[in-house]
Specification:
100 residues, mainly alpha, 2 domains, elongated, Transposase IS4-like domain-containing protein, Transposase_11-like, ISAs1_transpos
C-alpha cells in the first residue's frame, strides 16, 4: 500500500479521480514499454543496469512518439531506426548537426 501527502481539500470524489488519472497515465506508459520494448522480460538485475535501461527505453519511447513524419507503429519505427541511419539521426536531432 502506498501513502501520499496532498494539499487538496478533503474531497473523496476528486481525490479518487486524481488517483485514477495518475494510474491511467502510468499504466499506459508501462503498457507501451512492455509491448514495444518487452520491458517485463528484461533480466537485467546487477548494479544500476535495470534503472539505466529503463531511462534509455523511456527516452527512446519519447523520441519515437514525438516523430510525426511516419504513420507506422512505434514497433516499426524502432525497427526502421535500427536499419536506417538517416532516420535514426532525424529522431535524435543529430542530422542538422552533422550537416552544419
Amino acid at each position: 500500500m502506498k501513502f501520499g501527502i496532498l494539499s487538496l481539500p478533503a474531497n473523496a470524489e476528486r481525490l479518487a479521480k486524481e488517483v485514477r488519472n495518475h494510474w491511467s497515465i502510468e499504466n499506459k506508459l508501462h503498457w507501451q514499454l512492455d509491448v514495444n520494448f518487452r520491458e517485463d522480460l528484461s533480466r537485467v538485475r546487477k548494479g544500476n543496469g535495470a534503472e539505466n535501461l529503463s531511462i534509455v527505453r523511456r527516452a527512446t519511447l519519447n523520441l519515437l512518439q514525438k516523430d510525426k513524419t511516419s504513420k507506422v507503429s512505434l514497433h516499426k519505427r524502432r525497427f526502421i531506426a535500427s536499419c536506417r541511419k538517416d532516420y535514426l539521426l532525424d529522431l535524435v536531432g543529430a542530422k542538422e548537426i552533422l550537416h552544419a
